[in-house]
Amino acid sequence: MRRGPEGAQARAAWYFLAPALLLIGLFFFLPVGASLLLSITDFDIYALGDSSLARFVGLRNYGNLVHNPTFWTAIKNTFYFALVGGPLTVAVSLGAALLVNARAVRLRGVFRTVYFTPFVTSLVAIAVVWRYLYHPRHGLLNLLLGLAGIHPIDWLGDPRWAMPAIILLAVWKNFGFNMVIFIAGLQSIPERLYEAARMDGASGWQQFRRVTLPMLAPTFLFVAVVTMIGYFQLFAEPYVMTQGGPANSTLSVVLLMYEEGFRWWNMGYGAAVAFVLFAIILLLTLVQLRLRAREAIP
User: Fold this and answer.
1) How far apart are alpha carbons 81 and 163 in whole angstroms?
2) Of 37, 56, 82, 168, whose Cβ has the fewest other Cβ atoms within 10 Å?
3) What is the four-CA torsion angle of 82, 171, 98, 190, rounded to 10 degrees?
4) One digit per residue, pLDDT tens: the chain, 298 residues?
């Protein structure tokens, strides 16, 4: 152990960090470790009363997942939601940030508050409103479609439209958070870069492409990673709006995990679903970081 002033500073740092590290270990690493142990057992509702009934099954739960068509349906739905809804959310967030951050816009604070409000609003309250908007006979969306001569759509009852309806709701609810991050990134870009671009005769689009986008690259990476992680954990929207239906068209991996673990009490199987999702998110995050690192190399 180091002695002297450096050692005293190191010990003081550990003393300050100890409470936070203790809480992280107690409420994060310990539950994760327990879940990993559950995933290699057949822990179920009977084992809740007598833990001796939980048997070690190794990788059998993971093998059963591979042969479960419902699991692959949930994987497909989750990728569909993340790969379509994620880019849409990022694009809408960037567009809103550019509009709010524009010099010609007045009452910027009001617009930021209005756009950010859906993100902090209870999903249950939002679901009540959006279920009315999606109503097949009296909903506002179908009323607008009717004015355009388009037949009404059963948004939440048709397997072809249920997931797009969930995506539309998720984009509207979540874009405000990314918008605030993009605004911070935009305000950190030096104004002299735009002045130099204008002096060189760059148009607005050229300034956006040659100055704004490159300078926002770190912000894009953060927003993309956070959005992807959040969207792969899709649960609340289908749980509240459709319960995974119709015909499992909105069943997500997290919703499947919830049903297996807390509806059917197959805790071991549900834990295996959770760790498969963790592996998928970790892999995709590493891929995004690696691609960003390659782009940064001159």
Assistant:
1) 7
2) 56
3) -40
4) 456 567 788 888 888 999 999 999 999 899 899 899 989 998 887 777 777 777 889 899 999 999 999 999 999 999 999 999 999 999 999 999 998 887 766 777 788 888 899 999 988 889 888 988 998 888 889 999 888 888 889 999 999 999 999 999 999 999 999 999 999 999 999 989 988 988 888 888 899 899 999 999 889 989 999 999 999 999 999 999 999 999 999 999 999 999 998 888 888 999 999 999 999 999 998 988 887 777 655 5
